[in-house]
Amino acid sequence: MTQLTIRLPANGTEIARLQASLEAFAAEHSLSQEGLFKLNLVLDELVTNAISYGFNGIARPQIHLQITLDQGYAHVCLRDNGQPFNPFSEAPEPDLDTPLEQRRIGGLGIHFVRSMLETFHYQRDGDWNVITMGLPLGPGGDPTHYTR
């Protein structure tokens, strides 16, 4: 098993550092472009949402990320000390049947995240939001399947 741990101050400039760290990690461990794309998509959406909406009134906002690779599978733990928020149950469900120009804003990013994940779980641990996820990194699999 291989592991990457990243601690980020919660500001938008850190997204580029997160992406650079993921790219270096992927290259070091021969992760496919598809696997890197999936990790980037999931983590960019969740971290950006936390930074954009989760830290109002938080004195020292922090984000901790741990990724463990094991036989083409990523086990991800994302922790932040922002306001309590479960993106999997509290984000609005997008209305995919309404024409694009008539849709409400919100929820589509989390919808895409769910479609990439095989498993996901949210819990509040003291002052921390904790999201654990399982993400298959190889080809195949059903990208529309997800479990809670």
> What would CATH call the class?
Alpha Beta
Oligomer: single chain
Mean pLDDT over all positions = 84
Strand content: 25-35%
Ends apart, CA distance between termini = 24 Å
Shape, per Cα inertia axes: globular
Largest sheet: 5 strands, antiparallel
DSSP strand tally: 5
Output the radius of gyration: 15 Å
Low-confidence stretches: 140-148
Number of domains: 1
Could you write a compact summary of the structure shown?
With 148 residues, the chain is an alpha+beta fold.
Describe this structure in words.
The protein has 148 residues and is of the alpha+beta class. It has one domain (2-136): Heat Shock Protein 90. It contains four helices and five strands. It has helices at residues 14-28, 33-53, 87-90, 108-116, and strands at 2-9, 62-69, 73-80, 119-125, 128-136. It has a five-stranded antiparallel sheet, covered by helices on one side. A hairpin with a 2-residue loop joins strand 4 and strand 5. Helix 1 (14-28) packs antiparallel against helix 2 (33-53) and helix 2 (33-53) packs antiparallel against helix 4 (108-116). It is globular, with a radius of gyration of 15 Å. The two termini are 24 Å apart. The model is unreliable at 140-148 (pLDDT under 50).
Topology, please?
Layout: E1 2-9, H1 14-28, H2 33-53, E2 62-69, E3 73-80, H3 87-90, H4 108-116, E4 119-125, E5 128-136
Antiparallel strand pairs: 1-2, 2-3, 3-5, 4-5
Helix pairs in contact: 1-2, 2-4
Features:
148 residues; alpha+beta; Heat Shock Protein 90; 4 helices
